[in-house]
Amino acid sequence: MLDNSQKKDLNLKTLELFQICAEKGSLIAVSNDTGLSVSTVSHHLRGLEKYLGVALFDHSRRPMILTPKGKIFLHNINDALHSIRKAKAEASAGNIDEASYLRLGIIEDFDSDIIPELAIYLSNNMRQCEFMYHTDSSYKIIEMLRNRQLDIGIISNSAERLAELQDRPLLQDPFVLAVPLNHEQSPIDLINSNTNLPFLRFPKNMIIGKQIDTQLRRFGLNLQSKFECGNSQTLLAMVADGAGWTITTPLILSRAKRFQSKLKVHPFPLKTFSRDLAVVASPDCSRLILDLVDKKMRKLITKHVIELTLKNNSWMTNSFKLIQ
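and the corresponding structure tokens:
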């Protein structure tokens, strides 16, 4: 006979944690992804095993692996969990006030002015909702959306197909050159390496780094870099200090307020190219909530980024814009 504590442990959160742990094979990895403590995750998994009366994991192995019965259980609940999430989303789709949980993943490019305002706006409009905000790379956010660990992501689109994910193109963000304020050489000299000023770049394993590298190769350019860094603010700090020049975007520059007075921005001197940012959602995310986030993001980007950028750089008018 099961007692009440055992019955209580079999809930949607427990099943979702089991699903994530089956994929990750590590309690620490599940803890990092969910924000729950390792002990809490372990408690849920042990409670589930106790409820079912079977071992779902071989806990002696690292990484943890599913037992044969665990594999069967995972196979049987995957479709069920998808149906439950979809049903919850559809049930709350008619009334934003009734939405109970929203997990947002956002690249760091928006984390200064825009995300705090978005958080306040959603909190005021979805008063019964529990929110989780996660900042990460576009690659990781896409992976988490596919694994149903996030509901909505705001990302820089990669060349890979987003398959079953809902994709809303958001912003066209052109690539530009950022140089120290008093640097006088022409942009064409910089990209042709006719300069003593070093090139500072994003790593090629980042989406933005890969996009830049692909375009440079199309132009037959092989720029040797002195410094490689995945933190955009560090790159721009070094440029502002006169340590080199870089290829970046207006959105990234908009976050570098403390360095802007020490930077000069030029159009890319050859054929222009840009990255597209998008709002992306899991298949079972409510369309009404997706519309709400998409509409508010457009207003915030226009207010905090586009209008301020074009005030001093009107030459970007046709290239730095929302995607309709």
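(Above: one complete record from the training split.) The chain has three domains: 4-89, 96-171+276-313, 176-271.
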